[in-house]
Amino acid sequence: MHSKESLEAEAERLRRRPAAESAPPVLCEFTVDLPGDPARYAGRLRSVLSAAVSLGAAADFEEEEELPTEGVPGWFAAVCSPGGEGVPDFARDGRGAYGAHTGSRPWSLQNWLCRFDPDDDSRGWQWWDVTQSGPSRAHIWVDGWGESFFGCRELRWAAYTAGALRVEGPTVRRSDAWAQETPA
Fold first, then answer.
1. Angstrom distance (rounded) from CA 75 to CA 94
2. 4-8, 48-52, 171-175 — which is least confidently predicted?
3. Where is this region: Disordered (predicted)?
4. What is the spatial distance between Cα 140 and Cα 121, in angstroms, rounded to a whole number?
5. Bridge partners, 32 (sequence order)
6. Fewest CB atoms within 10 Å of the CB: 75, 108, 162, 177?
């Protein structure tokens, strides 16, 4: 499902908005309600996913006893730690919203990073983009290979802890819906 090459392409999409003609026929959309500016939210979300995707392309998951965390933003490492020391308000609130909306416990950093192992087939999506769909709403777009149901718990964790109040989806949409939205 994921290869070093696909992770490198995913990393490039995290750095810059892909061209509309490169999109598959359909993408999956998550609607995210926010307490504030979608652009700040998008920057936080991209920063944590960029670190994980880059790690997925470079790390030897079979040899590493503990995965390196140098590129992981400090706020994300803090929100994944049991003590939660030094967690900014947006991440702490997102951690609470994740638990309330999913009924799941918080992720440990190492467990979350392991989902980006190219050989782990539990991550059923690849990053595509994030767009602004209102003053306090964003859409996260991923390639779910045309499916409406796929493994995405690690994406929800990142989405909430980056500052989401609520995350709904995925919904399969034609990719032209993504292309018409404003980049966040």
1. 12
2. 4-8
3. 1-22
4. 21
5. 138, 167
6. 108
